[in-house]
Amino acid sequence: MNIYALSSGPGTSGIAVIRISGKDTSEIIKSITQKPVPKPREATLRKINNINTYKLIDEGIILWFPGPQSYTGEDMAEIQVHGGKAVIQAVLNSISSFKDCRLAEPGEFTKLAFQNGKINLLKAESIADLISAETEIQRLQAIKIMKGKSSEKFNQLRDKLLKTLSFVEAKIDFPEEDLPEENLKKIKKDSSSVLNEINKILNDQKVGEIIREGFKIAIVGPTNAGKSSLLNNLSNREVAIVSEMAGTTRDVIETHLNIDGYPVIISDTAGIRDSKDEIEKKGIKLSLSKAENADLKLVVVDAKRVDISGFLNDLLKKDAILVVNKSDLLKEKLDPEIYKLEHVLISLKDNLNVDKLISKIKNNLKNKFISEEDILITRERHRQHLLQCADYLKNFLDKNDKKDFDKAAEDLRLATRHLGMIVGKVDVEEILGSIFNDFCIGK
User: Fold this and answer.
1) What is the largest CA-CA distance in the chain?
2) From residue 31, how far is each of 20, 277, 443 by CA, in Å?
3) I need a surface site. Which of 137, 225, 312, 394 has the fewest CB within 10 A?
């Protein structure tokens, strides 16, 4: 089956790029241009015709990439035409009329590249991350993964475990023969070394995932404290409805920001109070959940009635900034206890000290993203496989100490398998769908 898709963005543009991949790509190009395929990897100007009527659609550039020296590993071509919607649709319709030719699914070109051994799974994911990168730090992280440092590290660890597994299986296959003492020591030393390295990789404060997904900031606090106003101020636009009526915000409202190059997701949450309204109660439950999962909490309170007891006190214990709003209405000094907490006294109405709050947020961001080590984990999938690998290695070391080689070998095999699944060294069909469905069509 041959696949095709618009690979450039939808909408009107100067140039549109349409990709084709499959065994009949050369025949499709011949039919649509009424000429032989051009020289490989050489941009060639051709008339683009309707396959059925031979009427001219447009004049554009053809790039021919015979397999296996192509992105997908199959015969592949790119057609560059003018980016008008009618032109694009006419070319796509013409290609679709060719036998055994269908529209590509999201990420299918990259999936073929992986399946044909052109790239590994980590590089495939980094391509998706590069396409969706909105900030410089996200782009740099995607480029680092594309260069293959992560793949190299995980493959090194896997190779070390495979060598260890060969020693263990030798002992199982030839139980009557004693393994050399140095081999027994090497089994324990190498498996322990891999476990230590994995634990070190896991102890990364989830920086890679935060960069990829965005630093999560939750604005929480009681009703009418100015949470929605703060969201609008930080976003420089009207994201949330602001009203004097308490309980206006009932659901979580999110907006994506770029703060000094760092990707940030700010959530405005429902005001927390005792409520009999079922919808508001659900909103409050969501608020507490967002606060629990946030990388930073902005706990907003009214300067006239600062009460940090109960749930507010709990929220302020970790990764939080107390934001005392409505300072313009304050007629006396704040409680001295407030000064013991990390706080900012602001007035959103007068735009007072908001810059100080933003400065504190930036410092928090920079401190979170400081990492001396190379980031190796960028997705929860990687983390889960490493955690599973570590668990099986612990079991292996325990059984190996007890000379239970048969059962120990199975733990080592499973540990090796989980490392392999990160880079796609083993059968990973069950996870391919979820990975490549995140891609845009045409990639």
Assistant:
1) 88
2) 13, 66, 24
3) 394
Residue pair 365/264 in contact (Cβ under 8 Å)? The answer is yes
pTM over 0.90: no
Contact yes or no for 247/275 (Cβ under 8 A): yes
Q: What is the pLDDT of residue 392?
A: 95
Which helix (H) or strand (E) element contains residue 18?
strand 13-21
Amino acid identity of residue 328, one-letter, is: D
- What is the band of 122 on the pLDDT scale with cuts at 50, 70, 90? very high
Could you tell me what percent of the chain has a pLDDT over 70?
85
Q: Could you identify the residue written with the tokens 């050369």?
A: 26
pLDDT per position as a tens digit, 61-83 = 999 999 999 999 999 999 999 99
Which helix or strand (DSSP H or E) is residue 331 part of? Answer: none
Task: Name the residue type at position 4.
Answer: Y
Residues with Cβ within 8 Å of 225's Cβ and at least 6 positions away in sequence, in order, are 271, 300, 301, 302, 325, 326
Q: Which amino acid is at 401?
A: D
Domains and CATH numbers, the chain: 2-104 (3.30.1360.120), 145-204+377-427 (1.20.120.430), 211-369 (3.40.50.300)
Q: Residues 240, 245, 251, 254: what is their CA dihedral angle, to the nearest 10 degrees? A: 20
Q: Residue 159 corresponds to which tokens in the numbers above?
A: 């190779």
**Contact assessment for residue 275 and residue 307, using Cβ atoms and an 8 Å cutoff:** no
